[in-house]
Amino acid sequence: MLRDMKPLAGKTAIVTGASRGIGEAIALRLGAEGASVALCARDRQLLESNAASIRAEGSRALTVPLDLREAASAQSLVGAALVEFGGIDIVVNCAGATKRGDFEALTDDDWTDGYALKMFGAVRVTRAAWPHLRARSGSVVNIAGVGGRTPGPQFTIGGSVNAALLAFTKALADVGLTDGIQVNAINPGPVRTARLEKRLAAIDSDPDVAEAAFIRAEKITRIGEPSDIAALVSFILSPAGRLLHGSLIDMDGGSTKSL
User: Fold this and answer.
1) Which of 15, 80, 81, 254 has the most crowded CB, counting CB atoms within 10 A?
2) Which tens digits make up the pLDDT trace of 199-230?
3) Does the predicted model carry a pTM greater than 0.85?
4) Residue 81 and residue 37: Cα distance in Å, rounded?
């Protein structure tokens, strides 16, 4: 069905964190829907593999292996996308993982690194792309996390960074009203990534037992898949999702209990 519809044909997207996990799933989904995709992360080999999958769907793909913790990288990414595709319609900020651990054991470097990629990387990429998004009435989607709403004791860095990214989304949405740019954020809950698999393995050596115990402890319907988040990104970017603006959408299987 996606091959036939190609709802994003003619659109150009930048996806950060596109080498694995949620970012990979988003890049592949947008490519399957017809978008030309600039994939950014540090791992060139994984990016090339994902780009090959997008090209196999008949869409264009560009790999831009960069470390977005470096201040100049955002402009390099946007510049590469413009040279290759001629414009930018979509930015999905998905790069960045933060260190879990006991608060007293987390160092200044841990905190700095947590903000450097997920927060400042998103700010810089969005800022560099903004004039080009404005020219095309484009869209920004920030992938934050439910820890920004309900941070836990092992997630002091991640909760703080995600909360900052959510506040940034709300503020930027007001700018987007003037400039005609849609801005939203998604808060994934537990999603089946390599990082989560390590947490499950620490619960029990039997994957099924570990997953069942995790679901009970977290009080969720199930563990999410990267493709679940990618599907929501797809909806937000569709004409049916255009009314969403400044929205902070929890996609977490019921993890968030607060209003």
Assistant:
1) 15
2) 999 999 999 999 999 999 999 999 999 999 99
3) yes
4) 8
